[in-house]
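ok so i was messing around last nite and threw this chain in just to see what happens. nothing serious, just curious
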Amino acid sequence: MLAWGRNFPFLTDLFFDYFPAYNKFRTVSMILVIAELTIPLLAFLGLGKWFSGDYSKKELKRAGIWALAISGGFTLLVALLGPAVGSFTAPIDGQMIQGGYPAELIEALQLDRAGLMRMDAFRSLFFVLVAALLLWLNLKGKLDVRKLGIALSVLVLADLVPVDKRFDGVHYELPSHNETPFPMTAADRAILQDTSYYRVFNTTVSPFNDASTSFYHRSIGGYHGAKLRRFQDFVDHYGDSPVMLDLFNVKYVLVRSKDGVRPQRNPSAYGNCWFVERLQQEATADAEMKALGSTDLRRVALVREGEMDSQIQLGTPDSTDVIRLQTHEANRMVYRAEVKSNRFAVFSEVYYPRGWTASIDGKPVEIYRVDYLMRGLLIPAGTHTIDFRFQLPMFALGQWIDFSFGLLIVLAVLLLVVLHYLKPKCCKNKSERSPENVIQGGIA
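result:
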């Protein structure tokens, strides 16, 4: 019932508001994982009771009839009445109508959804009846335990395999399709001629719910079930505005025209990193977010009060001061800076302190959060190499723990196998040396 979500608001709101950690689930349907574990476990416990010998055939027959009536009756009820009383509309229906899809198509989709529900209900009823038949044959002595186990295993596989094939990744795809799932367009080719480090924003798709752009480019958008809350807040306020495009070094914007998709250059992108002339402190997160839209972020970096020493002194800007990105990897970014005096640099990367560290000429330095979600560093006068690295010591430790326990489990299983085959031989030798055998041998 919790998986019904907004369709059963009383229970959903109760758990969401008062049960710890429940509101951290990505979606309400994830609660079905508990059912996926407990229902098979309940089935094993039920079979254990069935074969335990603690119940008479009369009691087993009565229990089987009740189980068949409840499970089979419910699936039959869903098959007959579910499509008539249920609602098969979805939020996407309204979006499709706004996108120009005809109402007849939406109605056909809703009928298909009802039909799928009816078919799955009858399918479930079939498996319930077959399982009941197998148990009845066992009860009548026409099917022993081994044959019943084999028949139930085949029945479970016949249920699971077709359902598993409904999902992506189970069906066969040609290797050529896996290599190029998204055909390269003329706009992609034009952008890829630029070999510098930049990002791309694609307005022809839902940019923050579509990952196709990332196949060829470093995209500012994409999709992931778990998103940084600070980044999502920023997207909600400045999604496709110049503030976001400039801060995140979006050099090209893909737009749709009469001739198809074409790249449009963003000349105001700040680049991979830049120096600011001064720091501006804001009292609250809301004030910091609001100031992003009215501040010249090329010259000023916004800082939250209390997160940086207010006594930091910056030197006078010099036209010869320069900072460049030298190498870039998923877990490492290296920059080269040449400055005449103390300067503050902003980097077009998301601030994330849980793993990202920075060093200047090999010496660890503090990464500051500026402009609500960007990285900032105080760079002393001189020529320096700036190294950002993503390292999680606990991840390496977790790998060793996982390997160690996995090895112990394998060794334990091998030990049990060896003991299993050695035990009969030991017992046999022991029985041959028993006093009874010795006495009988002596009399003989």
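not much to say yet. The chain has four domains: 2-175, 185-265, 275-391, 408-443.
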